[in-house]
Amino acid sequence: QVQLVESGGGLVQAGGSLRLSCVASGTIISPNIMGWYRQAPGQQRDLVARMHSGGSTNYADFVKDRFTISRDNAKNTVYLQMNSLKPEDTAAYYCNLWRGVDRNYWGQGTQVTVSS
Predict the structure, then answer these.
(1) 34 to each of 48, 59, 99, how far by Cα in Å?
(2) Tag placement on the chain: N or C end, fewer CB within 10 Å?
């Protein structure tokens, strides 16, 4: 089993920055993909950014040039640096580790609230 624990969420004014962290523990098999998704109330959960253990990345169009994903494979940790935050970025942010359809794990989520 894999456990994911997020941290770093909070309340920030528009234009501000936050850095999310997610530490994975348990039986972690590489290669894998770690990433961040977000879900606002009444909305579906959307991909924000993800990063393969080999280094390739994918970003949602709505965060390009504002958010940066990185990871430390030795520490089984993935980060999301969020700059130029907007009120529409307000959501619960979930960490994900994917290693296959039967090895897809989620964290409990961390709330990000951006005030205007």
Answers:
(1) 11, 12, 9
(2) N
